[in-house]
């Protein structure tokens, strides 16, 4: 989100001429350049010093014991903790909540491990990504492509089928057109065939369309094609907890696994939104049921979601396609209102 904000700052600079400000490159007195390393240092500092340290401080303030160790289950009440330096200990608990999340997968494309990065890696790059290919069509792929393009990098998105599957198509089409308008390029209807070392740039991406083979070279190839849960690494079989080995995720209706005292939240749960605020609320619901006698489970039907693409998009509830499926073409009413932010009114390049 901070990188998205950084890209919007550059857009604001581009808008300044319409308000009478003139950059040095246009004959004025001010010149603006972007430093990838400075931006990343600021973002990394925020993550380490505010988010992570703030959470640890919160543990201390509330009497919570924090183990900076790798945890695996030994049985349904026992957890083994490994510090990675030969130190191992065990702890026990009446209840256990699994919240280990997931990791990006590389799609199994030949050469992906050697030549590509994930969205997790992007935020820790020491050098600017340069000309970038983003593979994927969900919100992480489009958000990354949007802010990379906004920061001034040549950006291409490779899409197998449709953008933002599951979101309202009318709104997605507007996002699609706007991203093209601001310079993001798309390769549609295909997936990578393989990745190789490039000759003029770091990575050569190869794909096929219509029986023909195509290729281009990029400084960075970012794979954003989904995440695999970490269930296989947690020793769940020792406690009898079932998980899906193909997805690495745990079926957990109402956050409960098949073992009564073991619960699961977040990206580790099968068929749940991969959204941190949702996982936090689900975890609180479990705690309230266990220790306060509440009966309410997490309601996943009305979750507000925001996509931080260049044209930002928020939604809650059913999209129009889901309305048609659930209520029929005559069972709902659609209202559409198009508007443009006031600050865009004098900026010609912002016009739709």
Automatic annotation (TrEMBL):
Positions of the FAD/NAD(P)-binding domain: 49-280
Pfam families: Pyr_redox_2 (PF07992)
SUPFAM superfamilies attached to this UniProt entry: FAD/NAD(P)-binding domain, FAD/NAD-linked reductases, dimerisation (C-terminal) domain
Signal peptide: none
GO CC term (a single one): mitochondrion
Keywords: Disulfide bond, FAD, Flavoprotein, Oxidoreductase, Redox-active center
InterPro entries: FAD/NAD-bd_sf (IPR036188), FAD/NAD-binding_dom (IPR023753), FAD/NAD-linked_Rdtase_dimer_sf (IPR016156), GSHR/TRXR-like (IPR046952)
One annotated GO molecular function: flavin adenine dinucleotide binding
Cofactor: FAD
An individual GO BP term: glutathione metabolic process
Family listed: Belongs to the class-I pyridine nucleotide-disulfide oxidoreductase family.
Protein's name according to its UniProt entry: SEP1 protein
Species: Symbiodinium pilosum
